[in-house]
What does this fold into?
Amino acid sequence: MKRFIKWLITHPFISSLVFVMWMLMNTLSVGNTIMALIVALLIPKLIDGFWVPQPQLHKPWKLVMFLIHVIYDIVESNIKVAKNTWLPKHAPRPAFIFYPLAMQESFPITLLTSTLSLSPGTLSAHLRPHDNTLLIHALDVEDPDQLVNFIYERYERPLKEIFGC
Amino acid sequence: MWQLIIESVIALLLVIGGLAALTGAVGMLRFNDFYMRMHGPAMSSTVGIGAVILASIGFFWFHTGTFSAQELILMVLLMVTTPISAHLLTMSAMHMKLPRQSNTQGGPFEINEQIDQD
It folds into this structure.
């Protein structure tokens, strides 16, 4: 019985995520619940062959703090870019910056690059696996080293702590 | 009284969202090269969409009493997918060696040999 449940639920996290998504998108009824169960059990089974193991969450509490920081930074950089757009005095000073990555795992790196692209003003342009650097295009930058430091302190160090890598 | 406060908050959110979307569009127009123009849509897809969705959730919560979680899913899915398309667009722009503004600091070797745009 135990082995059957283990065979049935290969990825508990994805299963619960799909189940919650399905229930939120439809109205609550018996039919929808059965359908949600079927989908939640079937989809992880289908993607199992392509699944690459990802680093585990070590400190989930820090992830919440990270998200709050990211939302705050998005709002702040929106105001900055709006200034660059509307005020002729704040003409943008664009720059390409190399950012040396301190981590190797693909999922935390994806989170970092997504965070950078999502906040206006910075844009991840290219990931170079051979020397583990990230090419960033920044809209308005005074001192590139300061931006590199900021990204490390604000995003990469928390991510390394969260995923323990 | 409460109705007035809630409705003015919703209206404020709608105005903020509209202004952010407008700023993103104006940025596309005013910036000089492709890489700078990529920063405009990031604005409309974060604060623009976010404020409008928050306003919509608030409005329907207040008027019909149902909290629509679908719209939160919409926001999350947008936040997951926009960075990927932005990254791919920038990468392909670099491989096509699109010109950049001449005062751009730093030069990756991918686009170094080209002539800068004024």
Notes: The interface with chain B takes residues 21, 24-25, 74-75, 78, 81-82, 84-86, 92-98, 113-121, 123-126, 135, 137, 139, 141, 144 of chain A (CB under 8 Å). The two ends of chain A are 36 Å apart (CA to CA). The longest helix of chain A spans residues 60-86.
